[in-house]
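Action item from last week, closing it out:
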Amino acid sequence: MRKNRNTKTVFTVCMVVTLVFFLIFAARLADWQLIHGAEYRSLSEHSTGYTVKTEPIRGEILDRNGEGLVINRTRYRVTLDKLYIDRDKLDDTILLLIDILGKTDDKWNDPLPIKVSGDSFVFADNSEDEIDELRGEDCLDLMNADADSCVTALRERYEVKGSYTASQLRDILSVRYGMELDNWSADEPYIFADNVGEATVGAVSENTQGVGGVDVCTYLVRSAQKPSLAPHILGALGAISEEEYNKKTSEGKSYALTDYIGKFGIELAFEDQLKGESGTKVISRSSDGTIIDTVETENARPGSTVWLTIDSGLQAVAARSLETNVRAAREFGEQECRLQNKTHLGEDCRCGAAVMLDVSDFSVLAAASYPTYDLNKYSKYDDYYVRLTEDENAPMFNRAFSGAFACGSVFKPCVALAALEEKTITPSTVINCTQHYKFYPTNVVECMHYHGNLDVNGAITQSCNYFFAETGRRLGIETMYLYAERLGFGEYTGLEVEETKGTLAGRDSKDWMPGNTVQAAIGQSDNAFSPVQLATYAATLANNGVRLRTHVVSKITDYRRSMVLADYSKPQTVCECGVSEKNQKTVKKAMRDVAHDPDGTAYKVFGGYKVKIAAKTGTAENAGSDHTTFICYAPYDKPEVAVAVVLEHGAKGQFSMQVAKDLLDAYFGLKK
């Protein structure tokens, strides 16, 4: 009985609560429809809301010292905002702005390929594509029409009804045509004039008081400070492709089909960090054009700032020295060809690359590729870009990171380390160089000189091919490339941007024959490596056989550079070469003698150098003149930096050595 009473009470309470909610809802509905219905109906009929996207600021790219490499500079533009403009006064507003800019000598955006000639109109010269677009079916659909007919059609299309001179009419139509081309809309103001000066800013602000829709606003222009300094590393932006858009949106990233995205280099590798996040604002406007309210619903967030390990000063030295010595090698080769009546003496030298690393952490201090190009001009994708793509010297190719070149004798210290550690030879092992190594008749190795009896020190110092051909044969290709891998050959260095893995002879070769081993041992055969791999190899030798991850990014901070978001500067060990300290010292001493012993192959350039270095020269056979390579580290006793240089078809090693010397001079302050 008691249970029935409790159930009845609960039911009664629920009914009362439900009734109360129903009465409140009915009263609110009556207020909306009966009491204030007309007011709300009028408001809904006479107001419109627009959601507008606000663009983020893209992060900047700096060198290791905070010097701007790619930065954002503030510019001014004059815009016409469709949300605020008085449509009845639009044409007069256009003429007012044209008159103002005429007095301040700034240019307004003028896309119409028609000009005034007397009392009639004619097409502008050299504007065939623009004329076809104007007369095409996507616009006027008046193929073969003359300029007067096009003007008449445009005037009707845009309902220009005022009484204007021919020149005024033409200018009004040009702006209105530009608005159509640019899809002028509520959330896309029309850019009337770009990059205007302060005189225009003041004049427009002063003379357009009370004129709705005219605005002078700031915008950021992204550009390289020194556009030819490191374009291959910095990278560039381009219009997002459908594939890129789908990939980014599937990852939950916010992109529009009109966005630009990093295409290569740092701009690509750190796209997510540099991009920033868009914001939104909601604009409420009445039917008569009055802005009722503007609410920033989400603030745009700027991208992060990426700090590179590059030193701009050293990078400039590398770029300048490469250009100088490539030209010098070519001129020397041309002269020798005339004197000797031969070819392939360096006359075809036109390209090269140089890399300098910090031995303490394998950070890239400089990485120059020649020929270079202007990154700011490249980004416009105009005739300059076309010329770059057609240049047979491939200036857009990053030779420092992505080029793979036969390395020649710079490979010999690697072979020596492996042979010593495997006890294939000892420091006192002597091999008699008779200049022509003929163990494999189909793979005869020629030495530059008749050296006679040499130990490993003399063989490295004088770069004896015979000694290393025999040593390589005894060692075997499998053991040889095992040590080569540990020293960074045929391995990615760890760079944050695009790089090649190169080709390591034997491991990456097909149809290997025993005779190929002797060629591989002197840096020939299929061996092909990038300058940054050679620099990593030199730095590993300097770092007592410990290979660290090579990197070109130091850290990432917020846009204001006040907070570190990611730190890349801590050294990361990749592997150790597995060679004893004693055997390393044997090879290092020989590399010191390369530069400082009178018999050394680099003595001519470095014999009296103030800083003791360890080095190795290289000459690699290929189609055309020989490539020349050079590696070194310095100082010899307490290494700080490692350098690698490759001159394609450089023929004479003195020119690649000079590039390294210029870099060392700059680093150690030996020359201004």
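Closing note: The chain is about 40% helix and 20% strand.
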